Amino acid sequence: MSRAASGLLHLLQEARECVLCAKHLPLGPKPLLAAHPSSRILIIGQAPGRITHLKGIPWSDRSGDTLRRWLGISPKDFYDPRQVALLPIGLCYPGTAANGDIQPRPECAPLWHPQILPRLPKLNLTIYLGRFAFERYFGSRFHNLTDGVKAFKDLLPKQLILPHPSPRNGPWLKRHTWFGKSLLPELQDLVHQTLRKH
């Protein structure tokens, strides 16, 4: 194993053992993330949901099914960290409120992202999913998430902003038919090209 791979694996183990905000988590800490020095695509999502927390597998729910359909890839490719890295804004399930999950814990991204991201040198595409990823990385560049998603031609081929693939965003998708007609075909072509580079 190379030094880079060993260093990243050690760091991921540290992240998976993190209990920094355990007292705020209704089901306790269970950080869910995946990465490898060879990862070509990085997906920065929101935080694990209750179902994925209980399963211990990121994106193992309806949102994950939709996301994989958007990307046009199989679960096998999606869960191969040599191809796809999964790094949410909050590593643990934060709990649920009346209108959905509570926002990700604010401690996570500032602590873990600056340590993990530099150890992913082969990334060709980073996908920012949903409001919290958007606000952290693009909040000062675009007026809102929809504007960021619409700017996909300016961000590709290295970056892309997507709405969260939650069923709750069905009305957004119905209002913005260009997302499925124009953006997703370009995204799927780029994902396939990126994964073929291995």
Kindly summarize this structure in a few lines.
It contains 10 helices and 6 strands, in the order αβαααβββαβαααβαα. It has 198 residues and is an alpha/beta fold.
Walk me through this protein's architecture.
The structure is a single chain. The protein has one domain: Uracil-DNA glycosylase-like domain (Uracil-DNA Glycosylase, subunit E), CATH 3.40.470.10. Helices cover 44% and strands 10% of the residues. It contains ten helices and six strands, in the order αβαααβββαβαααβαα. A four-stranded parallel beta sheet has the order 2-1-5-6. Strands 3-4 form a two-stranded antiparallel ribbon. A hairpin with a 2-residue loop joins strand 3 and strand 4. It is globular. 36% of the residues are buried. The model has no long low-confidence stretch (mean pLDDT 95).
Structural class: alpha/beta
The coarse overall form would be globular
Strand order of the largest sheet: 2-1-5-6
CATH topology title: Uracil-DNA Glycosylase, subunit E
CATH top level is Alpha Beta
- Mean pLDDT comes to 95
- In CATH terms, the superfamily is Uracil-DNA glycosylase-like domain
**Topology as H/E string?**
HEHHHEEEHEHHHEHH
Low-pLDDT segments, ≥5 res: none
Give the C-alpha Rg.
16 Å
CATH architecture: 3-Layer(aba) Sandwich
| Count of distinct structural domains | 1
Total strand segments: 6
- Beta content comes to 5-15%
- The termini sit apart by 18 Å
Please bin the fraction of helical residues: 40-55%
Let me know the largest β-sheet. Answer: 4 strands, parallel
The number of helical segments is 10
